[in-house]
Amino acid sequence: MDLLKILFAIFLPPLGVFFHVGIGLHFWLNILLTIFGWLPGVIHAFWVIGKKG
User: Fold this and answer.
1) In which domain, by residue range, is 43 found?
2) In terms of C-beta distances under 8 Å and separation of at least 24 residues, what long-range contacts does 9-16 make, across chains too?
3) In sequence order, which residues have a C-beta less than 8 Å from that of residue 51 and are 6 or more positions away?
4) Three-state SS across 1-53?
């Protein structure tokens, strides 16, 4: 499952965050960051997945 989260974090960052923490602050923040640019969304997704897991 971790490999799947990482793949989602690369291609669809909000989906990777959703699978890890569900709908919450980090999910919505990641959507906002991904709208501003793909790279900030990916960095945040990796941070969330690495921090809590």
Assistant:
1) 2-51
2) 9/42, 9/45, 9/46, 9/49, 10/42, 13/38, 13/41, 13/42, 13/44, 13/45, 14/41, 14/45, 16/45, 16/49
3) none
4) CHHHHHHHHHHCHHHHHHHHHCCCHHHHHHHHHHHHCHHHHHHHHHHHHHHCC
Task: Answer whether 0.70 is exceeded by the pTM.
Answer: yes
**Tens of pLDDT, residues 1-53:** 689 999 999 999 999 999 999 999 999 999 999 999 999 999 999 999 998 65
Count of structural domains, the chain: 1
